[in-house]
Amino acid sequence: MEHGQSALRNTIELDTIRANTVYENNNQQQKGGDNEDVDYTKRAQWLRAAVLGANDGLITTASLMMGVGAVKQDVKAMILTGFAGLVAAACSMAIGEYVSVYSQVDIELAQRKRDKKDKGFEGESLPSPMQAAFASSLAVAVGAMVPLLAALCVKDYKVRLGVVPAAVTVALVVFGWLGAYLGKAPILRASLRVLLGGWFAMGITFGLTKFIGSRAL
């Protein structure tokens, strides 16, 4: 199995991730961990890209929508702003991840050449910049859809300003829990860190935009 490709596919197919995780845990319990130990650090690259992408899309889009909602009651303005944030965040994340992974590949290839280990190695074992970019942009889109769908379902202005942060809060907890669970990290700490960061971003954007809109302009 091509390790780099299967790892990135897991970021796109969350059901497959859960199934593989259950299988690995059951396998360890049955064999006592003697024959096959799971190295969770190997998940770091795709897990970082998936969690970072989802949270970036979620927080960026929600913050932009809350900022516009602080000065405009029109739902169309909020939705258009959120959609623009989705596209911008997805493109930014994809380009950033592509450049980052490509740099990693170049460094690894250079190191192999220096160590004279470049003979006979398989290129498929290296991470794929295109797959990393696609997975990251997809994760951003998934996260950004949460506040967009929440805003679309509510017409009343005041209710909308409560529903969007509520939906984002649930999503932040889920993303924080998922990242910690897949990486076998402390779940409570990871979820709380993601949640507080999201609240801070939305609160700052809403407050500053409202202040500028009502006083400075």
TrEMBL record:
<dbReference type="GO" id="GO:0030026">
    <property type="term" value="P:intracellular manganese ion homeostasis"/>
</dbReference>
<keyword id="KW-0408">Iron</keyword>
<dbReference type="GO" id="GO:0005774">
    <property type="term" value="C:vacuolar membrane"/>
</dbReference>
<keyword id="KW-0926">Vacuole</keyword>
<feature type="transmembrane region" description="Helical">
    <location>
        <begin position="75"/>
        <end position="95"/>
    </location>
</feature>
<feature type="transmembrane region" description="Helical">
    <location>
        <begin position="132"/>
        <end position="154"/>
    </location>
</feature>
<feature type="transmembrane region" description="Helical">
    <location>
        <begin position="161"/>
        <end position="182"/>
    </location>
</feature>
<dbReference type="Pfam" id="PF01988">
    <property type="entry name" value="VIT1"/>
</dbReference>
<dbReference type="GO" id="GO:0140315">
    <property type="term" value="F:iron ion sequestering activity"/>
</dbReference>
<keyword id="KW-0812">Transmembrane</keyword>
<comment type="function">
    <text>Vacuolar Fe(2+) uptake transporter.</text>
</comment>
<comment type="similarity">
    <text>Belongs to the CCC1 family.</text>
</comment>
<keyword id="KW-1133">Transmembrane helix</keyword>
<dbReference type="GO" id="GO:0005381">
    <property type="term" value="F:iron ion transmembrane transporter activity"/>
</dbReference>
<feature type="transmembrane region" description="Helical">
    <location>
        <begin position="194"/>
        <end position="213"/>
    </location>
</feature>
<dbReference type="GO" id="GO:0016020">
    <property type="term" value="C:membrane"/>
</dbReference>
<keyword id="KW-0813">Transport</keyword>
<keyword id="KW-0406">Ion transport</keyword>
<keyword id="KW-0410">Iron transport</keyword>
<dbReference type="InterPro" id="IPR008217">
    <property type="entry name" value="Ccc1_fam"/>
</dbReference>
<dbReference type="GO" id="GO:0005384">
    <property type="term" value="F:manganese ion transmembrane transporter activity"/>
</dbReference>
<keyword id="KW-0472">Membrane</keyword>
<protein>
    <recommendedName>
        <fullName>Vacuolar iron transporter</fullName>
    </recommendedName>
</protein>
